[in-house]
Design brief:
The protein is of the alpha/beta class. The protein has one domain: 3-Layer(aba) Sandwich (Cytosolic phospholipase A2 catalytic domain). Strands 1, 2, 5, 6, 7, 8, 9 and 10 form an eight-stranded mixed sheet that branches. A two-stranded antiparallel ribbon has the order 3-4. α1 runs antiparallel to α3, α2 packs across α6 and α3 runs antiparallel to α10. About 4% of the residues have low confidence.
């Protein structure tokens, strides 16, 4: 059996997947042969591939919004002035800190097949950074995979521009299968359809209320959730040996708000949820 860990997106909600990984790796002793990740799952995938579940928990319970994004002082006008709302220089620095030459070599030494999904905005195709790439190229794929359209800038790789892998592939199960995985452990930060109540927050429509930013976040979240539903349904129909880990109910925080206390709670939720699904 070749184990594949599939880590979906969801911004700060990805802390749920970290709890799942802690149960799978630390408590169950399951070692991945293949790790795929997209969006927030891209950075998690790198550390999961090195086997550093403890460091992954530390990262996701200590990071704050300012460590990931720099919000434009002009709000929605940043989209007009710059083409995006948030700068990702803090995220670039975070990736540089955690993704070192030693960690890339460790992934290679462990024989793990790593796939980081990002969307090529010129071709519309999903492309992957792998453990065979140079460190700089792979780090750039991780950054691009985490950049949501309009909310963050496109990232240039070669002659093309790239964004969030979740635009086309929010849960990269097929990439894990293509890399040789025969048993899939898929982590998604979005609850199943019957466990998702409507949000109660009204949409801001007054000038100066960042209506564009809020509406984009909500639209991206809805599309991402539908992608996860469709992917899991397709894999079940195809008879793929897959265990899915999803929250029992919708996770409350805004995916682009990184609050250590909330993320620590989501890590615990993921751990307990995984324990209940795979005792």
């Amino acid at each position: 059996m070749t184990n594949g860990f599939v880590l979906g997106g969801g911004g700060s909600l990805g802390a749920f997947s970290v709890g799942v990984l802690r149960w799978l790796v630390v408590d169950k002793g399951i070692r991945p042969d293949v790790v795929t990740g997209t969006s927030t799952g891209a950075l998690a995938a790198v550390l999961a591939a090195t086997g550093e579940a403890g460091l992954l928990s530390d990262l996701y319970t200590n990071v704050q919004t300012r460590d990931v994004l720099h919000r434009s002082l002009v709000g929605d006008a940043g989209l007009i002035l710059h083409g995006y709302v948030n700068s990702v220089e803090p995220l670039r620095e975070l990736i540089d800190t955690y993704f070192t030459p030693r960690r890339l070599q460790k992934i290679r030494d462990r024989g793990v097949q790593l796939r980081i999904a990002s969307t090529n905005m010129q071709t519309g195709a999903v492309e992957y950074g792998t453990q065979a790439d140079s460190l700089e190229r792979l780090k750039t794929f991780v950054l691009a995979s985490a950049c949501q359209p309009a909310l963050m800038p496109t990232i240039q790789i070669g002659a093309h521009d790239y964004l969030d892998g979740g635009i086309m592939q929010m849960l990269p199960v097929q990439a894990a299968l293509d890399a040789g995985a025969t048993k899939i452990y898929a982590c998604a930060a979005f609850a199943a359809p019957g466990a998702r109540p409507p949000i109660t927050r009204r949409f801001p429509n007054e000038p100066g209320t960042d209506v564009l930013n809020f509406t984009l976040r909500r639209a991206i979240l809805l599309m991402a959730t539908q992608q996860v539903d469709d992917t899991l349904a397709l894999m079940q129909e195809r008879g793929v040996d897959l265990t899915a880990f999803r929250p029992a109910s919708s996770l409350a925080p805004d995916p682009l708000e990184f609050d250590p206390a909330q993320m620590a709670a989501m890590v615990d939720q993921g751990y307990l949820r995984a324990k209940s699904i795979l005792p």
